[in-house]
Specification:
Layout: H1 2-38, H2 50-59, H3 61-95, H4 97-112, H5 115-126, H6 130-154, H7 158-166, H8 171-206, H9 214-223, H10 227-255, H11 257-261
Helix pairs in contact: 2-10, 3-4, 3-6, 3-8, 3-9, 5-6, 6-8, 8-10, 9-10
Amino acid sequence: MCKKNLSASVFNKKNVAGGAYSFFAAFFFLFIWHLLCVMKIAPAYMLPSPGRVLAALAGDFPLLVHHLSFTLFEAFTGLCISIVCAFLIALLMDSNIYIKKILNPVLVLTQTLPVIALAPVLVLWLGYGPSPKIALVFMTCFFPMAVSLSAGLASTDGEDVLLMKSFGASSFDIYRFLKIPRSLPYFFSSLKISASYAVVGAVIAEWLGGNGGIGVYMIRVRKSYAFDKMFASIALIVIFSFILLKIVSFFEYIILPWNKFSKRTYPKV
């Protein structure tokens, strides 16, 4: 019990220390930014001060929230579709070696195509609604998760599979109790990357046109040379990308508590 309490204490201290380091890093970044503006090293129209950006964020907050609802819908929908498809493709590739040999080069080939270059084609095919944005988010998020899940499923020890088969386990049981739980750490690692890409991918797609979204807002304020509002929208993208990343980490903690505990460093007592 003493060892368990000490380990929990050490783990909590590490979390507090990590949060403090992040806070000081953000404070240092803002300080340097403010210093550049005060010393007029960068022109005000190119680099507005943090105070101006905060004022623009507060002044246009209702409008930004309206546009943000479009972006979050596109990002969340594309991310969810990519998660489902990544699971299906990874399971299909793991179940048959020939399917894996066919699909793996195709997956790699799709990543050689620049996603931004495909955005105008998606708009031409799907119009200016949310469909091309969702498709672009899907294309951005799908590959990391599919590849990581496939690698996680393939990392299962063959002896463990043989052991389960010797007890009469079916293929469904092997995937349910062995392969999928083993691949979940790989999945969450790739999901963190994809979650951070989702909002950015939606914004990039919105640059090509649409009725709403942070990308549309950025294009409008750029044309009016309101760069403080543009920086405010960038700050909003960063904030919500960070929130989405923390949500994924929270679900990882809930679904994989043993993975969190395995990372603890127990002190010698």
